[in-house]
Amino acid sequence: MQETRVLLLRHAETSSPDCFHGAESDIDLGDRGRSQAATVAVRLAAFRPDAVYSSGMLRARETATPIAGACQLVPQVIETLHERRMGPLSGQPKAEGWSTYQQAMTHWMAGDLDYTHEGGESFADIAARTVPPFQALADRHRGETIVVVAHGVVIRVLLCSLVEDLSQADFADVPIEFVGVNDLRWNGTRWSAVGFERNGSPSQNQGGSSEPLKT
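Given the sequence above, the corresponding structure tokens read:
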């Protein structure tokens, strides 16, 4: 079976990047984020994707819209790919809430996937919500290329759950820069990560490659 190629990226920079924004915070993009979205749209159009998807959150839709426009496509929303529910942590400055986020991440990387803080989703919760629809997209577009715009924690959970050479222990190592592209392949039996990006540059990682994205 021909490989499905999924170009999975985080939304562009929000109008308040110094705060945590979970599913409870439907924030828009800032000026820098809108510029990032326009730039990545031109790059991704060169891959001639067959479809562009995003979560239903405003920051993801505002990133996906110029990408789809550059590709002469209509963006489609997958509601279940929304960001992690973070409860009271959503909207907090990262400097104040980081220890709470870090504690959950440490538990997850140690294998305690049900751990979370009060009001927040666990790794297991996020995986149960996001993996099935993400897998369904790959199966629906067999042999094609698609773009998926999602969120930082969601991307880390998806890659650590699906990519053969990754596990929850690699959670913190999966790059989630704004509009950084994860170049994924599904061959019908296994997922692989051909390349990751940090700030638009290729990055070496487990299961990834230092090769730049190629059309």
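The beta strands are 4-10, 51-54, 76-77, 145-150, 181-186, 191-198, 201-203. Try to locate this feature in the token string yourself.
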